[in-house]
Design goal:
Protein name: GDSL esterase/lipase
Keywords: Signal
Strand content: 5-15%
Number of helices: 13
GO cellular component, one term: extracellular region
Family: Belongs to the 'GDSL' lipolytic enzyme family.
Largest sheet: 4 strands, parallel
Strand order of the largest sheet: 1-2-3-4
Number of strands: 6
Radius of gyration: 21 Å
Organism: Pisum sativum (Garden pea)
């Protein structure tokens, strides 16, 4: 009788307070992916470049001013970056640690790490032109080292299970298109030829991940490169307009990358490969900023917002009062709020419930129930 009464009380509670109980249960349920692994560039780098012999780093204030504790962790922004927010939205953990962080512990390994390196790309020349930036091949080598560490920590069988069920996210191509094709010998190539070579390298990288056990991968497009404050400064004119030519190159590359991902997926039916468009969501926000609460989408928050990045963005340079009003933090990287709105759109496009516990928490203080996007 006592058990029956207890069951009835639970049932009544669920009926009366179902909305609250669902949130409580969501907070404790296992996420769809046990781990997240990030590869690529500064959109994802959570501090790997801190420990590399390169000038492409940002482990100085005011970077990280909106991060936990206001610390400059080597993330290229004012707070969490895109890899952190994807990881948090999927309910894995709030931030994604850098693999090269000396403080990384065995307990961090089973839920994933970041291998991305600011300044990297599918073209080795992109990384090598900036000193010690990790090429995609070097990132893959570190992933193999990670696998050995994971096996030692949890055993070979559990390690294989984690890798096969984990989500792998890749952001590469931004620096290839915006930097290597503009400022290196790659400029002598026809762009469609260069873009095709990038896609081939990307496909080979994805095949290598597959051979190492990966089965779930998101491949991100570039961001709207012609709308970066750096591009506007160089070619945007007095009005600091988006540079259509640069955006056109990004769109061409993104289209070829999408086709390349689809082609590879068709040849490997058990490979859950997805091309994820971040170009369009970001461009939509930039073209209609006030609807999303942004008041400046043409300058970075740090300094004049026209050329400062890395060491040039420091405590001696002016900072905007509120990063929430700015789409860009420096001349090449969005703010955390810009990333949050982008994550909301890409998750919505994949039919995720934006009001679920983990997504709402990751995107706070955004009111996810009021978000409406016109794609």
């Amino acid at each position: 009788m006592e058990n029956l009464m207890r069951m009835r009380l639970v049932t009544i509670f669920l009926v009366l307070f179902g909305r609250v109980s669902n949130i409580a249960f969501a907070a404790t349920t296992n996420p769809a992916y046990p781990a997240v692994f990030a590869f690529g560039d500064s959109i994802f780098d959570t501090g790997n470049n801190n420990n590399l012999a390169t000038l492409s780093k940002c482990n100085n204030p005011p970077y990280g001013r909106d991060f936990y504790g206001g610390q400059a962790t080597g993330r290229f922004g004012n707070g969490r970056v895109l890899s952190d927010l994807i990881t948090a939205s999927l309910g894995v953990k709030d931030t994604l640690p850098a693999f090269l962080n000396p403080a990384l512990s065995d307990k961090d390994l089973p839920t994933g790490v970041c291998f991305a390196s600011g300044g990297s790309g599918f073209d080795d020349l992109t990384a090598n032109s900036q000193g010690g930036v990790l090429t995609m091949g070097a990132q893959l080598n570190f992933f193999q080292q990670y696998i050995a560490k994971l096996k030692a920590a949890v055993g070979p069988e559990k390690a294989s299970d984690i890798i096969s069920k984990a989500l792998f996210i890749i952001s590469a191509g931004n620096n290839d298109v915006a930097f290597a094709y503009s400022f290196t010998i790659r400029r002598t190539m026809l762009f469609n030829v260069y873009a095709s070579s990038l896609v081939t390298v990307g496909q080979n990288f994805l095949k290598s991940l597959y051979q190492l056990g990966a089965r779930h991968v998101w491949v991100l497009s570039t961001i709207p490169l012609g709308c970066l404050p750096a591009a506007r400064t160089q070619l945007g004119g007095a009005l600091r307009s988006c540079v259509d030519f640069e955006n056109g190159l990004a769109q061409m590359y993104n289209g070829m990358l999408s086709a390349g991902v689809s082609s590879l997926k068709a040849s490997l039916p058990d490979y859950d490969l997805k091309f994820v468009d971040v170009y369009t969501p970001m461009l939509n926000i930039i073209q209609n900023p006030f609807a999303s609460g942004f008041y400046n989408v043409w300058n970075g928050c740090c300094g004049t917002g026209t050329f400062e990045m890395g060491a040039q963005c420091n405590l001696l340079t002016f900072q905007c009062p509120s990063t929430a009003a700015y789409f860009f933090w420096d001349v090449a990287h969005p703010t955390e709020r810009a990333y949050q709105l982008t994550v909301a759109q890409i998750l919505q496009a994949q039919n995720y419930d934006l009001t679920s516990y983990h997504i709402s928490k990751a995107l706070h203080p955004l009111n996810v129930s009021s978000l409406s996007f016109n794609n």
